[in-house]
Amino acid sequence: MSSIHDFATWEPLLRLVRASHPERLAGPGGHVMGQIGLGGWSVPVRRPHPAPGRASLVEDMQDEFTAVEAIQAALRAHGTDSVSFMVETLVDGRTALQVVDSGPAVEPGLVSPFVGTLVLVEGAVPEPWRRLPEAVPGAVPAPSADPALLERTLRERLPEAVGATEAEIAEAEARLGVTLPDELKALYRVIRARWQDWRGDYAAQERVIDAVGCELLPLDQLYVADARSRPSLWQFAATDAVVTAPDAAVQGLVGSPGWIAFGDNGGGDRLALDLTPGPGGHTGQVVMIGHGDSIGAGLLAESLTDMVVNGRAEWNAGRDWDGPPVVARLDILNDDVSAAARPELEVLVLGGREGEPRSLAPVAGLPRLRTLDAYPGTLADPLEIAGLTRLEYLRLGPEEWRVLLDAGAVPRGLLAAHIEVRGEHHPPQIIALANELLSLWDRPLISRTVLEGDLDTDRTAEGGAR
Q: Closest Cα partner for 234 from 331, 95, 127, 381?
């Protein structure tokens, strides 16, 4: 077995964990959990308080860093990006460590380090990430679009700039699989934005930013901002929806094969030319794709010429996708399921509440309802889920999943499932429940290896995978 399954590899961290949680790990039943990845970690270790008047220093946490680095080295040797673990004390006083491999069918967990969303169909993504732009007959470039004026203006502003050749532009088109709009070609004929062309001259780079109105991507870094360029975990993405108003300038999409990203505003938001505008927009308009949003883009300028020549710089991403009637989020102050029962409803989120659990009868048979996210204990009868015939994502508590599994009533049209863990649940029980669900779709299971050792002596014993 590799060193990631060697008790000795974990022993320095286990000693820190035990010292941090002496009461919790004093006897059988108590446990603590953690997760370690190559890019970071979350471990149940209490860090020492710095001396009054100074900040924490690396040396204050050196023992933790050294212990984690040993496990990260084992991960690299094992060819794994991350590992979850649970520590508990056995009846005989020895320490038991469970090393968990979630496998390729489980997304990273945010609350539980063991179980995130179970992807039941390989490669499946939520419906908004599958949505393609609608055709808008009659969409044309804005009257302000003028490639000749754009090129002339940029040459006046950047007389010493190095432009792209026609061959380089053709190479970019071949790489992207799309014909670049004339305005974008005009821009790159003046400035191809390669760092080596500026020879380390930051002032020259700033002049380009001022002249164009953004940080320009080099021609060979242009990309299509389609849905794949905006990945999101199922547990978040499944509760989003895409909506385009009848007069919208920009279609409310995750991404589009017609969004050609060419710049950045310096804060992580990307500028793109939009070749698939909304009903109220223009072909080739400039949109801003906000780095903090997973859906949608905001109109920045009606054309690239308008942006550069006239200095357009205002935009508003909007959030047309995050509310009724398409998305309903019900909580203690808004608990009327009947009011949400509209034909447009795609996402129903039932938050925690006081009072009687809710019935799903009002939303049974809705033609577009694809996501149900129900806080544990909020459903009057989990078996009513059978009436939701279009579900692709279901998030329930362990008890509700147990009811569905025992009744053979887990919806087989699901693409992904999530076990919402609240309160005290022994992690192996949740892993077993997750594996039952994965088995229904013949997906790779979560595995765990139990290692046992005595931290007070040199005696250790390794258990087997389960």
A: 127
Q: What is the pTM of this model?
A: 0.88
Residues 55, 4 contacting (CB under 8 angstroms):
no
Listed as ranges, residues in the chain with pLDDT below 50 are 1, 459
Neighbours of 267 (CB within 10 A): 9
Is the Cβ–Cβ distance between 46 and 20 less than 8 Å?
A: yes
The C-alpha angle with vertex 45 and arms to 39 and 51, in degrees rounded to 5, equals 105
pLDDT digits (tens, 9 = 90+) for 369-392: 999 999 999 999 999 999 999 999
